Amino acid sequence: MRDAIGLTDNLGKYLTKAQKGYVIAHELAHVRLKHSRKHLLLVMAIFSITTLLLFSLPKQASPVRPVIEVLAIFGPLVALYYGSRRFEYCADRHAVDFTGDAEIAIQALANLERSRELPVTHTRLMEWFMTHPTFEHRVDAIAKLGCVPADRLTVLLEQAGIPASAA
Q1: At what angle do helices 65-99 and 135-145 cross, to 10 degrees?
Q2: Whole-structure pTM value
Q3: For 81-113, how does the pLDDT look when each residue is reduced to its tens digit (9 = 90+)?
Q4: Which of 139, 145, 162, 166 is most buried per CB count within 10 Å?
């Protein structure tokens, strides 16, 4: 496997130079921490365990087998998405450590979120099937990491055009 990152050519449209630095540091953190390899190992482990469990079901489990099969589909997906979200938090942490500026990270995420023109909040069930943490959770984690006070976080989000109540 080759280590690579992908960036779109329109990042400058939404981000300042410092914010682009944060995004690049975040993506490089994924490479440095070998998240793609770890994700592949996680996929293989989860589906191997699921397969073994399904094939080792006793015949007495026949009445509940449909329920078990549904769980065998959704359980691994939820576990994989959970792992992906952990990788995102980890890459955020490393990027903030590298850049030394949690506020730039928050501003970058806010600008990217606003550019997507999607709802900022999601239902709890919807979060289970997301590869990235919600904007709200991610910004809160970065604010805690960088010791950004709640009132300053509110100002940063409002400057980015995102109501503080949305995050």
Answers
A1: 40
A2: 0.85
A3: 999 999 999 999 999 999 999 999 999 999 988
A4: 139
Q: Which domain holds residue 157?
A: 16-166
Residue with tokens 């300042």: 16
Number of domains in the chain: 1
Residue 4 is assigned to a structural domain of this protein: no
Spatial neighbors of 85 by CB under 8 A, at least 6 apart, are 130, 131, 132, 133
Q: How confident is the model at residue 164 (pLDDT cuts 50, 70, 90)?
A: low
Instruction: Give a yes or no: residue 109 inside a domain.
Output: yes
Residue type at 38 in one-letter notation? K
Residue 147 lies in a domain: yes
Whether 22 is covered by a domain: the verdict is: yes
